[in-house]
Design brief:
Elements: H1 2-17, H2 20-32, E1 39-44, H3 49-55, H4 68-75, E2 105-111, E3 118-124, E4 132-135, E5 154-160, E6 163-169, E7 174-175, E8 182-183, E9 188-196, E10 199-207, E11 216-224, H5 260-265, H6 283-303
Parallel strand pairs: 4-5
Antiparallel strand pairs: 1-2, 1-11, 2-3, 3-4, 5-6, 6-9, 7-8, 9-10, 10-11
Length: 304
Protein backbone atom coordinates (compact mmCIF):
# COMPACT_ATOMS: atom_id res chain seq x y z
CA UNK A 1 0.00 0.00 0.00
CA UNK A 2 2.82 2.38 0.92
CA UNK A 3 4.59 1.65 -2.37
CA UNK A 4 1.42 2.41 -4.30
CA UNK A 5 1.01 5.75 -2.48
CA UNK A 6 4.65 6.65 -3.12
CA UNK A 7 4.28 5.72 -6.78
CA UNK A 8 1.19 7.93 -7.12
CA UNK A 9 2.90 10.86 -5.42
CA UNK A 10 5.98 10.45 -7.61
CA UNK A 11 3.87 10.27 -10.75
CA UNK A 12 1.90 13.38 -9.78
CA UNK A 13 5.09 15.28 -8.97
CA UNK A 14 6.74 14.33 -12.26
CA UNK A 15 3.62 15.19 -14.24
CA UNK A 16 3.53 18.63 -12.66
CA UNK A 17 7.24 19.13 -13.17
CA UNK A 18 7.16 18.18 -16.83
CA UNK A 19 3.79 19.78 -17.60
CA UNK A 20 4.61 21.89 -20.70
CA UNK A 21 2.29 24.72 -19.68
CA UNK A 22 3.72 25.07 -16.17
CA UNK A 23 7.25 24.67 -17.51
CA UNK A 24 6.61 27.32 -20.16
CA UNK A 25 5.25 29.73 -17.57
CA UNK A 26 8.36 29.21 -15.43
CA UNK A 27 10.65 29.72 -18.43
CA UNK A 28 8.65 32.77 -19.38
CA UNK A 29 9.21 34.30 -15.97
CA UNK A 30 12.91 33.44 -15.78
CA UNK A 31 13.58 34.80 -19.26
CA UNK A 32 11.90 38.11 -18.47
CA UNK A 33 14.12 38.86 -15.46
CA UNK A 34 11.96 41.92 -14.93
CA UNK A 35 8.44 43.11 -14.33
CA UNK A 36 5.24 42.40 -16.19
CA UNK A 37 4.26 45.50 -18.19
CA UNK A 38 0.72 44.23 -18.83
CA UNK A 39 -2.07 46.36 -17.36
CA UNK A 40 -3.78 49.74 -17.52
CA UNK A 41 -1.37 52.69 -17.53
CA UNK A 42 -2.35 56.36 -17.22
CA UNK A 43 -0.05 58.84 -18.93
CA UNK A 44 1.71 61.61 -16.99
CA UNK A 45 2.42 64.60 -19.21
CA UNK A 46 3.41 67.26 -16.69
CA UNK A 47 7.05 67.41 -17.77
CA UNK A 48 6.30 67.98 -21.47
CA UNK A 49 2.74 69.30 -21.38
CA UNK A 50 3.29 72.11 -23.89
CA UNK A 51 4.85 69.86 -26.52
CA UNK A 52 2.58 66.88 -26.00
CA UNK A 53 -0.95 68.21 -25.36
CA UNK A 54 -1.57 71.44 -27.28
CA UNK A 55 1.50 70.68 -29.38
CA UNK A 56 4.53 72.79 -30.21
CA UNK A 57 3.91 75.85 -32.36
CA UNK A 58 5.09 76.40 -35.91
CA UNK A 59 8.83 76.82 -36.07
CA UNK A 60 9.46 75.39 -32.58
CA UNK A 61 12.17 72.75 -32.90
CA UNK A 62 14.23 73.46 -29.78
CA UNK A 63 15.82 70.37 -28.28
CA UNK A 64 15.41 68.27 -31.42
CA UNK A 65 18.68 67.45 -33.23
CA UNK A 66 17.28 67.99 -36.73
CA UNK A 67 19.44 68.82 -39.73
CA UNK A 68 18.84 71.37 -42.48
CA UNK A 69 16.79 68.95 -44.60
CA UNK A 70 14.41 68.24 -41.71
CA UNK A 71 14.12 71.94 -40.89
CA UNK A 72 13.22 72.82 -44.47
CA UNK A 73 10.61 70.05 -44.58
CA UNK A 74 9.10 71.14 -41.25
CA UNK A 75 8.87 74.79 -42.30
CA UNK A 76 6.80 73.86 -45.36
CA UNK A 77 4.34 71.75 -43.33
CA UNK A 78 0.79 73.10 -42.98
CA UNK A 79 -1.61 71.64 -40.39
CA UNK A 80 -4.46 71.87 -42.90
CA UNK A 81 -2.99 68.84 -44.64
CA UNK A 82 -4.61 66.72 -41.92
CA UNK A 83 -8.01 67.82 -43.25
CA UNK A 84 -7.47 65.90 -46.46
CA UNK A 85 -9.82 62.88 -46.48
CA UNK A 86 -6.97 60.44 -47.07
CA UNK A 87 -5.11 61.76 -44.00
CA UNK A 88 -7.93 62.21 -41.47
CA UNK A 89 -7.55 58.64 -40.22
CA UNK A 90 -3.76 58.69 -40.34
CA UNK A 91 -2.40 57.19 -37.09
CA UNK A 92 0.43 58.64 -35.08
CA UNK A 93 3.58 56.80 -36.19
CA UNK A 94 5.60 54.64 -33.81
CA UNK A 95 8.27 57.37 -33.59
CA UNK A 96 5.68 59.64 -31.94
CA UNK A 97 2.67 57.56 -30.83
CA UNK A 98 3.75 57.20 -27.17
CA UNK A 99 4.45 60.95 -26.90
CA UNK A 100 1.01 62.39 -26.97
CA UNK A 101 -1.30 64.05 -26.62
CA UNK A 102 -1.33 61.47 -23.86
CA UNK A 103 -1.74 58.46 -24.43
CA UNK A 104 -3.18 56.18 -21.77
CA UNK A 105 -2.19 52.60 -22.52
CA UNK A 106 -3.64 49.15 -22.18
CA UNK A 107 -0.92 46.54 -22.52
CA UNK A 108 -2.05 42.95 -23.05
CA UNK A 109 -0.02 39.75 -22.87
CA UNK A 110 0.38 37.59 -25.97
CA UNK A 111 0.61 33.91 -24.99
CA UNK A 112 1.61 30.95 -27.11
CA UNK A 113 -1.65 29.05 -27.82
CA UNK A 114 0.00 25.68 -27.10
CA UNK A 115 2.37 26.30 -24.20
CA UNK A 116 0.87 29.47 -22.68
CA UNK A 117 4.36 30.92 -22.69
CA UNK A 118 4.59 34.70 -22.83
CA UNK A 119 5.78 35.56 -26.34
CA UNK A 120 4.93 39.25 -26.57
CA UNK A 121 2.87 42.27 -25.60
CA UNK A 122 0.28 44.29 -27.50
CA UNK A 123 -0.22 47.98 -26.71
CA UNK A 124 -3.53 49.77 -27.24
CA UNK A 125 -4.54 53.40 -26.76
CA UNK A 126 -2.44 55.31 -29.27
CA UNK A 127 -4.07 57.69 -31.72
CA UNK A 128 -5.45 56.14 -34.89
CA UNK A 129 -5.21 52.50 -33.75
CA UNK A 130 -1.51 52.18 -34.44
CA UNK A 131 -1.48 49.36 -31.88
CA UNK A 132 1.99 47.98 -31.40
CA UNK A 133 3.12 44.39 -30.93
CA UNK A 134 6.36 43.72 -29.05
CA UNK A 135 7.63 40.21 -29.75
CA UNK A 136 9.69 38.49 -27.04
CA UNK A 137 10.15 35.10 -28.70
CA UNK A 138 13.43 35.84 -30.45
CA UNK A 139 12.05 36.22 -33.96
CA UNK A 140 14.10 38.12 -36.54
CA UNK A 141 13.21 41.51 -37.98
CA UNK A 142 11.95 41.54 -41.59
CA UNK A 143 14.28 42.16 -44.50
CA UNK A 144 15.58 45.71 -44.62
CA UNK A 145 14.94 45.89 -48.34
CA UNK A 146 11.67 43.98 -48.70
CA UNK A 147 10.05 44.20 -45.25
CA UNK A 148 6.71 46.02 -45.01
CA UNK A 149 6.84 49.44 -43.33
CA UNK A 150 3.85 50.13 -41.07
CA UNK A 151 2.67 52.93 -38.78
CA UNK A 152 3.53 50.80 -35.75
CA UNK A 153 6.75 49.40 -37.20
CA UNK A 154 8.13 46.01 -36.19
CA UNK A 155 9.23 45.63 -32.56
CA UNK A 156 11.15 42.96 -30.66
CA UNK A 157 12.14 43.02 -27.01
CA UNK A 158 14.60 41.44 -24.59
CA UNK A 159 14.98 41.72 -20.82
CA UNK A 160 18.33 42.86 -19.47
CA UNK A 161 18.90 43.51 -15.77
CA UNK A 162 15.22 44.13 -15.12
CA UNK A 163 14.83 46.54 -18.06
CA UNK A 164 12.76 45.72 -21.15
CA UNK A 165 14.72 46.84 -24.22
CA UNK A 166 12.58 47.16 -27.36
CA UNK A 167 14.02 47.65 -30.84
CA UNK A 168 11.70 48.94 -33.58
CA UNK A 169 12.39 49.09 -37.31
CA UNK A 170 10.28 49.30 -40.49
CA UNK A 171 8.40 52.43 -39.42
CA UNK A 172 6.59 54.54 -41.98
CA UNK A 173 7.60 58.06 -42.96
CA UNK A 174 6.18 60.05 -40.06
CA UNK A 175 6.86 62.86 -37.62
CA UNK A 176 8.77 63.37 -34.38
CA UNK A 177 6.50 66.23 -33.36
CA UNK A 178 3.03 67.42 -34.38
CA UNK A 179 4.33 70.60 -36.02
CA UNK A 180 5.72 68.76 -39.01
CA UNK A 181 9.21 67.67 -37.87
CA UNK A 182 9.76 64.73 -40.27
CA UNK A 183 10.87 61.21 -39.43
CA UNK A 184 12.27 59.04 -42.20
CA UNK A 185 11.40 55.35 -42.70
CA UNK A 186 15.07 54.44 -42.22
CA UNK A 187 15.17 55.22 -38.50
CA UNK A 188 15.80 52.68 -35.74
CA UNK A 189 14.14 53.23 -32.38
CA UNK A 190 15.34 51.65 -29.13
CA UNK A 191 13.10 51.96 -26.07
CA UNK A 192 14.01 51.16 -22.46
CA UNK A 193 11.09 50.33 -20.14
CA UNK A 194 11.75 50.28 -16.41
CA UNK A 195 9.57 50.51 -13.33
CA UNK A 196 9.69 52.19 -9.92
CA UNK A 197 6.74 51.05 -7.82
CA UNK A 198 3.54 52.04 -9.60
CA UNK A 199 5.40 54.21 -12.14
CA UNK A 200 6.68 52.96 -15.49
CA UNK A 201 9.13 55.07 -17.48
CA UNK A 202 10.17 54.60 -21.08
CA UNK A 203 13.26 56.25 -22.54
CA UNK A 204 13.41 56.22 -26.33
CA UNK A 205 16.54 56.58 -28.45
CA UNK A 206 16.01 57.15 -32.18
CA UNK A 207 18.70 57.18 -34.85
CA UNK A 208 17.65 58.61 -38.21
CA UNK A 209 20.36 58.92 -40.89
CA UNK A 210 18.18 61.17 -43.04
CA UNK A 211 16.82 63.83 -40.69
CA UNK A 212 18.76 63.75 -37.39
CA UNK A 213 22.26 65.05 -36.64
CA UNK A 214 22.39 63.04 -33.42
CA UNK A 215 20.12 60.47 -31.75
CA UNK A 216 16.84 61.87 -30.45
CA UNK A 217 16.35 60.90 -26.79
CA UNK A 218 13.05 61.44 -24.98
CA UNK A 219 11.20 59.95 -22.01
CA UNK A 220 7.60 59.28 -21.04
CA UNK A 221 6.11 58.15 -17.73
CA UNK A 222 2.90 56.30 -16.90
CA UNK A 223 1.26 55.37 -13.58
CA UNK A 224 -0.49 52.06 -13.01
CA UNK A 225 -4.27 52.62 -12.95
CA UNK A 226 -6.17 49.28 -12.80
CA UNK A 227 -9.72 50.81 -12.81
CA UNK A 228 -8.97 52.66 -16.03
CA UNK A 229 -10.59 51.34 -19.21
CA UNK A 230 -8.71 51.80 -22.49
CA UNK A 231 -10.72 50.33 -25.33
CA UNK A 232 -9.79 49.84 -28.94
CA UNK A 233 -10.79 53.03 -30.75
CA UNK A 234 -13.50 53.01 -33.40
CA UNK A 235 -12.53 53.35 -37.07
CA UNK A 236 -12.42 56.83 -38.57
CA UNK A 237 -14.91 58.14 -41.10
CA UNK A 238 -13.47 60.63 -43.59
CA UNK A 239 -15.54 63.71 -44.43
CA UNK A 240 -14.94 66.96 -46.29
CA UNK A 241 -13.88 69.37 -43.53
CA UNK A 242 -12.40 72.22 -45.55
CA UNK A 243 -13.31 73.42 -49.02
CA UNK A 244 -10.31 72.69 -51.22
CA UNK A 245 -9.73 72.78 -54.93
CA UNK A 246 -9.10 69.33 -56.44
CA UNK A 247 -5.42 68.45 -56.26
CA UNK A 248 -4.50 71.22 -53.81
CA UNK A 249 -1.96 70.20 -51.16
CA UNK A 250 -1.73 72.50 -48.10
CA UNK A 251 1.81 73.79 -47.60
CA UNK A 252 3.99 76.80 -46.88
CA UNK A 253 6.30 77.94 -49.69
CA UNK A 254 9.97 76.99 -49.53
CA UNK A 255 11.97 79.54 -47.58
CA UNK A 256 9.15 80.33 -45.14
CA UNK A 257 10.29 81.36 -41.66
CA UNK A 258 7.84 80.88 -38.78
CA UNK A 259 8.23 83.56 -36.11
CA UNK A 260 5.37 82.48 -33.83
CA UNK A 261 7.44 80.75 -31.15
CA UNK A 262 10.32 83.23 -31.35
CA UNK A 263 7.98 86.18 -30.78
CA UNK A 264 6.19 84.37 -27.97
CA UNK A 265 9.43 83.63 -26.12
CA UNK A 266 11.14 86.88 -27.03
CA UNK A 267 14.18 85.31 -28.66
CA UNK A 268 15.72 85.32 -32.12
CA UNK A 269 14.09 83.03 -34.64
CA UNK A 270 17.42 81.24 -35.14
CA UNK A 271 17.17 79.94 -31.58
CA UNK A 272 13.95 78.04 -32.26
CA UNK A 273 15.33 76.16 -35.26
CA UNK A 274 16.60 73.15 -33.33
CA UNK A 275 19.71 71.19 -34.20
CA UNK A 276 22.14 69.23 -32.06
CA UNK A 277 23.62 72.40 -30.51
CA UNK A 278 20.29 73.08 -28.76
CA UNK A 279 20.60 69.85 -26.75
CA UNK A 280 23.46 70.96 -24.54
CA UNK A 281 23.63 73.29 -21.49
CA UNK A 282 26.22 75.48 -23.22
CA UNK A 283 23.50 76.68 -25.56
CA UNK A 284 22.03 78.73 -22.71
CA UNK A 285 24.80 81.28 -23.20
CA UNK A 286 23.90 81.52 -26.89
CA UNK A 287 20.26 82.05 -25.93
CA UNK A 288 21.27 84.76 -23.47
CA UNK A 289 23.21 86.65 -26.13
CA UNK A 290 20.35 86.27 -28.59
CA UNK A 291 17.92 87.63 -26.01
CA UNK A 292 20.13 90.64 -25.35
CA UNK A 293 20.35 91.34 -29.08
CA UNK A 294 16.59 90.90 -29.43
CA UNK A 295 15.88 93.34 -26.59
CA UNK A 296 18.35 95.87 -28.01
CA UNK A 297 16.76 95.73 -31.47
CA UNK A 298 13.30 96.02 -29.94
CA UNK A 299 14.35 99.12 -27.98
CA UNK A 300 15.67 100.73 -31.17
CA UNK A 301 12.42 100.01 -32.99
CA UNK A 302 10.38 101.54 -30.18
CA UNK A 303 12.49 104.72 -30.25
CA UNK A 304 11.95 105.06 -33.97
Amino acid sequence: MKCRICYCLLTATLSLYFNPQLLAQELSYSEREGFDIAGMWAALVLEDWYDRVPGAGLGSYLGIPINDAARQKAETWDASILSQPERQGQPHPAQYSFRGPRPDLRIDRILDPVTDQLIGYETNGTYGRADRTIWLDGREHPSERHGLHKWNGFSTGVWQNGVLIVTTTHMKYGVYQRNGVPASPYGVMTEFFFRHGEYMTMVSHIEDPIYLEEPLVRSQTWILNPPQVVSRANPFTSVEEVAMEPGWVPHWPLGTMHYDTANELGIAVEATGGGSVTLYPEYRETLRLMREEYDANLAVEEQE
